[in-house]
Design a protein that fits this description.
With 207 residues, the chain is an all-alpha fold. The protein has ten helices and no strands. It starts with 8 loop residues before the first helix and ends in an 11-residue tail after the last helix.
Length: 207
Amino acid sequence: MTSAPRPGRGTRVARLPPRERILDAAEDLFSREGIRTVSVQAIADRAETTKMALYRHFATKDVLIEEWLRIVAAGYTAAFDAAEAAHPDDPRAQILDVASFVADELPGISHRGCPFVTSIAALPDRTHPARRLIEAHKAGQLRRLEGMCSRAGLPDPEEAAAEITFLLEGAQISAQNGSVERADERLRTIVAAVLDRPAAGRADAPG
């Protein structure tokens, strides 16, 4: 038996409650056009609602931006959770799964850009709640990588986690600006090389 075709966006969105329709519209428009370019009216129109209804759920546009970025961050957190659940006793495999998750996201980023990077560029005020959310998310992600690297037995978990973070972030920027070909393949390969690199000064052969 063949499964029923997945309904189009319009049909799916129409079934959502008002708050979720607004978030769906914001995600679509913010991802394509940036958080500062998109107006509240455009989001309301896309969600097939009114500005008044939108403001009942989100007091300001900044609150909506913050909630959208919270959802984006939750997606990355879920990827870490899934990697740990899939490989509970293999932290190396966990890290490779996280790298693969980011690699799989690169084609979309090449068209839309990284939502965190594009949002920070539009939020020069470091005290903005949405910017603080991004910074807290990134700090938490680095701590999780450090924990994975430590459990994987790497000699300097902090340094390894920093290198892997550079790789993950750099791959996203490279995909966004098209500066490196096959960024997804290279990301997986280089992260694996960091994990497999021998400790400095370790003798591989008997002296």
